[in-house]
Amino acid sequence: MAEQAEATDDRENLLLPGEPRWEGGDGEPIIELVDVYKSFGDDHVLKGLSLKVMPGKITIIIGASGSGKSVLIKHMNGLLRPDKGTVRLFGQDVSKLGDQALDRLRKRVGTMFQNYALFDSLTVRENVAFALVEHGAMARAQAEELAETIIEDLDLGHALDQYPATLSGGMKKRVSLARAIVSNPEVVLFDEPTTGLDPVMMEFVDKLIEEITRKYALTSVLISHDLATIFRIADQVAVLAEGKIICVGRPEEIRESEDPRVQELIGGKAKSQIEVHASDGAEKAEMIVRMKGVHKGWGSNQVLRGVDFEVPRGTLTTLIGGSGSGKSVMMKHLLGLLKADRGRVEVFGQDLSKLSEGDLRELRTKVGMLFQHAALFDSMSVRENVAFPLVERRVCSRKEAHERTDRLLEQLKLMEIADQVPVQISSGQQKRVSLARALVTEPELLIYDEPTTGQDPIMSLYVEEMIMEVQESFDVTSIVISHDMASAFRTADVIAMLHKGEIIACGPPQVIAAAEDERVRNFVYAADVAAQEREAAARRGGGG
Predict the structure, then answer these.
(1) What structural domains and CATH numbers belong to the chain?
(2) What is the per-residue pLDDT for 276?
(3) Three-state SS string across 315-370, please?
């Protein structure tokens, strides 16, 4: 596929056979927003926003959570019309178009959603062909034949007749991309395409987007929080803040911006993704968790292959590893939800294989979980959400549960929102409420599942500070499962890397940062390599 990257596919536009590809004048944007305003009730989201998207380029939009990125994208594909200002798609003012004319324009725009949005009951071939059949562009047989061509182009030919549930995250991303481009759009919008992926898979998806953009002469617009993606593939970066585009330019120009709002988003000028948190180790500490020679498999699929893993009391250990490396299976062993085929698992000094189900339930009360998504009950107030584990497990009386809850809410600075429901509070506050709920049972071990995934850089730093605050203020041992290398190196006392079912590296951050194992270095430094690649490309192109 790489050798074809410069070729332009001259297939007809399958949804609109008579519609030529964009033939705007030289220097004319394919999408243009001029002084756009958009509000929802009293919530003023876009406040005089202006942006030009040039054809054939990759434009990445960055901004804090709640800054209006999704609303901006919905203006770009014609799903929303501005309250004031002008939006031009393919040179046409959307405010002056009727519904049918606007619908025709929308068919020239493809979208790749963050969470795949695949139909579980359809095969890969059927998922990709769906839009062509649904829009009546062609007969099912012809649509599936075209889908097969695109799927094979993305190296997924072996998965044509598989269902989404059998695919890895990376494969689902490719299927979602195939579905976005099968109708030969001129513009493709990508909603957080690399969120939740490990650094290696992130790089793969980035390069795939870049190749597809060049090969099919697409214009690509991405919403992204991933700095590695921005500096690896963007032709243009637009920074959204306070309802406006406050800065736009090449990645290297954004990096050098003096605007403090921009620097807050990208983490500072020319800043390495790897900042090592110095740790003095914990060799003599009591081990809260110990796994020795643990094997686990299902049939011929061996997921854990002799895992050795220890977590010292009072430390923060971050477990890193690629998608499918076995991290979730490891955590399920620590909770007693799975039993090892071979080897030994000890938690709080107890061999889990010798505990009854009742003993395991008792052990789990000493473990708190902070899930990737807040997982709060919408119908309960913040106070009721935090108190829920105490009430549900009947750990104490309802009166004592609420007294204990209020003390914790005070400690975590949440008392002001105690009577509000989740929908009324910010995503950062929801994270903090979720943490309070994990802490209310006074656990000895706290497990964080991808706490910074999907967060913008500002929110990621907020979550990190929250984790460090808990580590300093509570008598707790923490395990963090993460793909976020910057966060891991800033916060961890110990980092362990799981690769193909084995722990291949474990030690303080400074030891992992200096590791010579290529598997470790390729994973850990993927983001820094991305920045270096982008800078080298800019120099080769004379900065243009």
Answers:
(1) 285-366+445-458+471-513 (3.40.50.300), 379-442 (no CATH)
(2) 56
(3) CEEEEECCCCCCHHHHHHHHCCCCCCCEEEEEECCEEHHHCCHHHHHHHHCCEEEE
In angstroms, the CA 366 to CA 76 distance is 49
Give residue for tokens 């498999």: 297
* Two structure tokens written together for 184: 């030969």
Reported as a single tens digit per residue, the pLDDT across 340-392 is 999 999 999 999 999 999 999 889 989 988 876 768 899 999 999 999 998 88
**Virtual torsion, Cα 198, 201, 204, 209, nearest 10 deg:** -80
**CA torsion angle for 515, 518, 524, 525 (degrees, to 10)?**
100
366 in Cβ contact with 348 (< 8 Å): yes
Cα gap 381→393, rounded to integer Å: 19
Query: How does pLDDT run across 454-478, given as a tens digit for each residue?
Result: 677 777 887 888 888 888 888 899 9
* Identity of residue 236: Q
User: C-alpha angle 378/383/386, rounded to 5°?
Assistant: 80
Q: How many angstroms separate the CA atoms of 30 and 521, rounded?
A: 40
Rounded Cα distance, 9 and 498, in Å? 41
Q: Are 15 and 137 in contact (CB under 8 A)?
A: yes
> What pLDDT, in 10s, does the model give residues 501-527?
999 999 999 999 888 899 999 888 875
